[in-house]
Amino acid sequence: MAAPVDLELKKAFAELQAKMIDTQQKVKIADLQIEQLSRMKKHSNLTHVEITSLPDSTRMYEGVGRMFILQSKDEINNQLLEKQKTADDKIKELEQKKTYLERSVKEAEDNIREMLMSRRAQ
C-alpha cells in the first residue's frame, strides 16, 4: 500500500511545484506591471503639476507619433488626469490579482500538508 501513497504524494507535489512556479511568474509579471504603471502615473502627475503653473495663454502641443498637435491646456490636463486615474485602477486590479494568486498557492500548500498529516496518522 505504500507504493500507491508515494505515487499519489509525488503527483501532488509535482502539481504543487508546477502551480507555484506558474504563480510566481505571474506575481513577478504583476509586480513589473505595477511598477511600470506607477512610473507612468508619477510622470503624468509631474507633467500635470508643471502645466498648471503655466499661464492659460501658453501654446501646448501633444506628441502623436512623429508629429505634434496643438491642444488646449484644459485638454492636456484632462488627458493627464485620465491617465493617472486609469493607472490607479489598473494598479488596484493587479494588486487584487496578486493577492489572489498568493492565496491560491498558500491554499495548495495547506492541502498538501493536510494530505501528509493524514497519511502519517494512518
TrEMBL record:
The keyword Acetylation does not apply. Keywords: Chaperone, Coiled coil. One of its GO terms (cellular component) is prefoldin complex. Residues 77-111 form a coiled coil. The keyword DNA-binding does not apply. It comes from the Eukaryota. GO terms for molecular function: protein folding chaperone; unfolded protein binding. Binds specifically to cytosolic chaperonin (c-CPN) and transfers target proteins to it. Binds to nascent polypeptide chain and promotes folding in an environment in which there are many competing pathways for nonnative proteins. Heterohexamer of two PFD-alpha type and four PFD-beta type subunits. Belongs to the prefoldin subunit beta family. This is Prefoldin subunit 1. It comes from Astyanax mexicanus (Blind cave fish).
